[in-house]
Amino acid sequence: MSDTTRRSLLTQLCQQGVSRVTDLANHYDMSLNGISKHIKVLEKAGLVKRRTIGRTHWIEANLHKIDLVENWFKELKSIWELRLDKLDEIIKK
């Protein structure tokens, strides 16, 4: 999730649905091999699934895993909001 290209790929897959690797690569100024490496990282994290039909590789977002990541980010955000609220209280005293 720390890489902007991977976040962008996930966004595309969530918005457009299942896509061919070559179609995903057309949106970026990098080689097909470079995009494939990003996709492999997302696969390893369980955030996308690959299906191969002949020579065509289809990539699909794993929405269940993405929901887990989103919930984790929400928890982190609420923790930081509590800390910032506490800091605000201390500063106002």
Give a verbal description of the structure.
The chain is of the alpha+beta class and 93 residues long. It has a single domain (4-92), classed as Orthogonal Bundle (Arc Repressor Mutant, subunit A), CATH 1.10.10.10. It has 4 helices and 3 strands; from the N terminus they run αβααββα. The chain has helices at residues 4-16, 21-25, 32-44, 63-92; strands spanning 19-20, 48-53, 56-61. Strands 1-3-2 form a 3-stranded antiparallel β-sheet. A hairpin with a 2-residue loop joins β2 and β3. α1 crosses α3 (32-44). It is elongated and about 65 Å long. The termini are far apart. The relative contact order is 0.13. The mean pLDDT is 87.
